[in-house]
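Protocol check, entry for the methods section draft. Step 1: assemble the input record (protein sequence plus ligand SMILES). Step 2: submit for complex structure prediction. Step 3: store the structure tokens unaltered in the notebook. Ligand used here: zinc ion. Step 1 record:
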Amino acid sequence: MATNGLRSCCFLVALTAVSFAASTAHGTAAARNGACGGALRVPILMYHRINVVTKHTPAISRRLTVAPAVFARQLAWLDRNGYRTITQGQLLAAIGCRGALPPKPIVLTFDDGYADVFFRASTLIAHHGMHAIAYVITGRISAGDPSFLTWPLLTALERRGIEIGSHTVSHRDLTTLSDRELRTELLESRRVLERRLGHPIRWLAYPFGAYDARVVASARRAGYRLAVTTRGGDLQDVHRPLELERLRVLDSTGVKGLAAMLAAA
Ligand SMILES: [Zn+2]
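Step 3, stored output:
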């Protein structure tokens, strides 16, 4: 089954936790975008699959699958409400105080590298002139399972404005690995992506959102500049660019849920 081994990638985002984060020491004033040295308020939405759920959809995938029609309405709502999707390069520059962000910046992310990111999501994203990033498991690319993206589709995604990041080689919990295994998961996935796509890859998503200080240090040594977690929130600490927070979008989120999440954040 396509989703074997892919257990749920993160903890549920509690709106109360998001609200709490917004009122903590970093504070709302310090979080104004463009202010350097503190935190940036940038919602990073976490999607997995965009597809129609059928009786054949594995139970484990259902909660992580957003219907194409709902996804289309979410993008239209973001567009209508002035949100501007930004690239990883823009986010990195802003975190490093080397560039300002547009008003209401937002990042769209897709974990696990399912083929429906290309077949279902990318045309809608391109239609709105938006950006996004797909974090792929390199061991599953062109590996025979049609549920996952292929190397030609990765190239096609890039042409549609969707960046590619690493979700490691085999989607293991990085905190449980030996130093050597950890290095391989991080470095080999980056190297194969760079070789195939022909440019540097500096963006990472931790499988299951699992990370600790050792994993972060190893990711930094492996050449990553930004990494997303599954910790709920949208207040990005500029001193911790390898521990970015995200807001999880589920099948049940819909447009109202997305609006509420962003209003609370
Ligand atoms: Zn994952």
